[in-house]
């Protein structure tokens, strides 16, 4: 079963998360397939840019709690998006939770429709947005992250754009993306690669400095009794015992 759809139009390769049975949760299999597709795009001289989108009403529900990727694999995927020598553009027409927000932050440009919603839900199951902080902390408003990391509150696309998680939000995401994709198609491959390297230098420093510590933190938290109870409660659709 293929979990990543692939199409191409005028040099833009579209990779679609296509695991709607679990709301495009980041399973070990999906992360592996997406990494392979990105590797193919990096090697293909006919690909000018990559669009990362989704099937169904959810871009990604976060980590697959039944088949989670190893933290190292998620770090590698996020770094691969950041270092891909071609722009990666997120196209969101649904909801994004937890680990899915790390994918958005890793992309060079992110666009969403105004009906999309976002939430960092990790704290509610007893873990923390550790690995996904690698691209998020350098690119997103720190005061806003403090609020949404700590509360797990849902916020809309307008707020996501205000805090730097999105580049643009609009009623019609394809209309919003049209001039962006046109600009990428008009740009030289070398110019795009070198300009992207300038833009991502500080993000990559965060990966180099903090990836090992945040990977260890993620593994420790997911193995803890509190996280086990939180994940069990989530899967059973009930409140965990700490809810007041």
Helix content: 40-55%
- The number of helical elements comes to 9
Shape: globular
Largest sheet: 6 strands, mixed
Extract low-pLDDT stretches.
none
CATH level 1 class label of the domain at 4-172: Alpha Beta
Q: State the strand order across the main sheet.
A: 1-2-3-5-7-10
How many strand elements? 10
Task: Summarize the SSE layout with pairings.
Blueprint lengths: L3 E6 L2 E6 L10 H16 L5 E6 L3 E3 L10 H13 L4 E5 L2 E3 L1 H8 L2 E5 L3 E3 L13 H7 L2 H10 L3 E2 H6 L5 E3 L2 H13 L3 H34 L2 H11 L9
Parallel strand pairs: 2-3, 3-5, 4-6, 5-7, 6-8, 7-10
Antiparallel strand pairs: 1-2, 8-9
Family: Belongs to the enoyl-CoA hydratase/isomerase family.
Protein name: Enoyl-CoA hydratase family protein
Pfam families: ECH_1
Quick rundown:
The protein has 244 residues and is α/β, with parallel strands linked by helices. It is built from nine helices and ten strands.
Q: What can you see in these coordinates?
A:
It is a single chain. The protein is 48% helix and 17% strand. The chain is an alpha/beta fold. It has a domain of 169 residues: 2-enoyl-CoA Hydratase, Chain A, domain 1. The strands form two sheets. It has a six-stranded mixed β-sheet, sandwiched between helices. A four-stranded mixed β-sheet has the order 4-6-8-9. Helix 1 links the parallel strand 2 and strand 3. Helix 1 packs parallel to helix 2, helix 3 packs across helix 4 and helix 4 crosses helix 8. The radius of gyration is 17 Å and the shape is globular. The model has no long low-confidence stretch (mean pLDDT 97).
């Amino acid at each position: 079963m293929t979990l990543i759809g692939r199409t191409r139009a005028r040099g833009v390769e579209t990779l679609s998360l296509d695991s709607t049975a679990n709301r495009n949760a980041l399973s070990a299999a999906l992360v592996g397939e997406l990494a392979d597709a990105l590797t193919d795009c990096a090697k293909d001289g006919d690909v000018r840019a990559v669009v990362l989108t989704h099937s169904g009403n959810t871009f990604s529900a976060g980590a697959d709690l039944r088949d989670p990727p190893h933290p190292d694999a998620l770090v590698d995927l996020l770094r691969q998006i950041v270092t891909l020598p071609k722009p990666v553009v997120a196209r969101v027409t649904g909801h994004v939770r937890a680990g899915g927000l790390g994918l958005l932050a890793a992309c060079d440009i992110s666009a969403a429709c105004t009906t999309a919603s976002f939430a960092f839900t990790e704290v509610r199951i007893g873990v923390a947005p550790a690995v996904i902080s690698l691209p998020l902390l350098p690119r997103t408003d720190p005061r806003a992250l403090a609020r949404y990391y700590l509360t797990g509150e849902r916020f809309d696309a307008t707020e996501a754009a205000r805090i730097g998680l999105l580049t643009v939000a609009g009623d019609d995401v394809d209309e919003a993306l049209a001039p962006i994709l046109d600009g990428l198609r008009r740009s030289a491959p070398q110019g795009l690669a070198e300009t992207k390297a300038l833009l991502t230098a500080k993000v990559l420093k965060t990966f180099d400095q903090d990836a090992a510590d945040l990977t260890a933190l993620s593994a420790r938290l997911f193995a803890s009794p509190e996280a086990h109870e939180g994940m069990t409660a989530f899967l059973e659709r009930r409140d965990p015992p700490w809810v007041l």
